[in-house]
Design brief:
- It is a single chain.
- The chain is of the alpha+beta class and 123 residues long.
- The chain folds into two domains: 53 residues; 49 residues, SH3 type barrels.
- The protein is built from three helices and five strands.
- The protein has a five-stranded antiparallel beta sheet with strand order 4-3-2-1-5, covered by helices on one side.
- It is rod-shaped, with a radius of gyration of 28 Å.
Length: 123
Amino acid sequence: MDALSSGLVILQAQAGGNPTMQMLSTLVTFGLVFLIFYFLIIRPQNKKQKEAKAMVAAMKKGDKVVTIGGAHGVITSVKETTVVVKVDENTKIEFSKSAIQAVTAKSEEKPAEVEEKSAEEKK
């Protein structure tokens, strides 16, 4: 960064009273600022949008998800613009696909034996 600023100082010093060189150094400065904005802000944002769009397109029944409101659940059905998420034993909520923040993992179905043990412990 020091080399960049020293190069700009040299350009400005050489420009002196020449208005053409002053204009050129100003354009170079604006060009560098634009490049910095592009690589630090615009490009990563576009990459993040593509990843989010791919995640929404890849959602399927059985995926564990987290909504933007913080609700955790398992997708029970996928429609054109919405998904139905099971958040509790008897509770299903329909969300817009854009309301899904993250797909955490593929849901693993419990074996019948584990469910029977947990049911016996509750009694």
